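ugh ok fine here u go
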Amino acid sequence: MVIAGLVVALAGALIGGFFSYLGAWQQSRSQMAAQESQYREDRAREDREKRSDVYKGMLDSSNAFAVATDEIATDCSDGKCSPDWSKWENTRFEFQSALNNVWIYGSDDAATQAEVISTALPESIGFPKPDELRISVKSVEFAQAYSGFQALMCRELPAVPRRGC
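structure:
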């Protein structure tokens, strides 16, 4: 009888231990899943924040480059030319830097839309020869591309885009 009691006690302990282990294993899996979900949410938020800065930089620098280009192009309208080439070169450099950031941190759609903006502005990369330089802004194309980039931002940056995006 004593042996049977020991066997029953041992079996009970084994079964109890097994179910304790099973409960702990399930709880650890649930915690790991919650941590992975939190990590994904944090990563998505960080990506949106980074893209927000990069995309804003793209719009700001493209607008500054367009304005500086327009100022260069219209500076000679009164017959006296004294364009601020230094300002224009700086805005050209800043625009190219912003364009590079979109290529690195932006989505494929953002890179495509940034290229559309780029085609409405003068060349921003390299050192073109003065006789090869096109100093003008394709205003209509620029405005459309700018609006297209804003729409892309509206779709990509909020955690839940608004219906109008």
